[in-house]
Task: structure prediction
Amino acid sequence: MQAAPFRLAELIGRGVAVQLTMNVKLSICIATMNRGDVIGETLESIVSQAGNDLEIVILDGASKDNTTQVIEGFRPRFPRLRYIRQTTNGGVDKDYDLAVQAASGEYCWLMSDDDLLKPGAVEAVLEAINHNYNLIVVNAEVRTRDVSKVIEKQRVVFDRDREYRPDQFDAFFSDCAPYMTFIGCVVVRRSIWMERQREKYYGSLFIHIGVIFQTLLPGNVLVIAHPYIAIRYGNAMWKPKEFEIWMFKWPRLVWSFDCLGSAAKESVVGREPWRKLKTLFYYRAKGMYTLNEYRKWLAPNVTSWDERVRIGGIALIPGFLANLIALVYSYRPNLNTSMMRIDLLQSRYYFGNWFNARRRS
Result:
């Protein structure tokens, strides 16, 4: 299985050592930048269960911390680790694409750089690969940032593994697309990735979603129900752009897929989720929706005066009051709101954080 020659030539031309590893079944592809504090734990969780049929390909988007030193420390233990460091950052989508292009495996696991593989994860994926799926989705549990406590036991609540045929693509999208925004769950046949459009999704932050859902997948998809990944919650580097991502980038991407029905897309996200006042109130409580976001993203899209008053008015609600109301709501029984509560407690509008900030100023 050859990697794309023109891309490899480009990497080699920049002085990057690229060595193809033969007889590799699975390439774990990681795009990273400035994660020296956590990527060592990620690599340890992989290397501790890796065999000769696995390689690790890391594409570093010009880290300025000790990421290089941490990664190089694993090379004596795991010679099938290939580290490609760029001199400039090309964005997470392009970095994942380059990592897959440089990979040698028949399948690529697009692993995140701060989360952990639980024991048995590699064995389970290699077993699934033997059944010739074109896509495998690996379930995850969600843990606190220090991974000491489980917040959510399963991201996809399945009691057993589930297969989807090509004629069940809409059902697969409805059931799994919200979870699949987490790139670390995706194991894709490399040839499928390489033959599809990719550059049009640079800058979307969800290149893997674009590659998978741009058109129907040939063959069956497997979702592994057991949570073999531990997600480190609250550590995402895109947090400051959260409002733009979930209110605009994500719905724009979802509604661009012509192969999916409107009902399936609507079940995942509406075309304009920012028009829902409850959604805006939640983002206000988290500190992600202010007058700045209103002026930049919403005002140009709102035409009626009454909607302008409602939508803009939420941005004027005192943040600590919105946070308090949302926190009280999050403690209602029979609601799965653990991650919502963490977001609210980390908000600058949480009373403790707000009070400390006021006291320092």
User: Anything to note?
Assistant: The chain has two domains: 5-232, 272-360. The longest helix spans residues 242-254. DSSP finds 16 helices and ten strands in the chain. The longest strand covers residues 221-232.
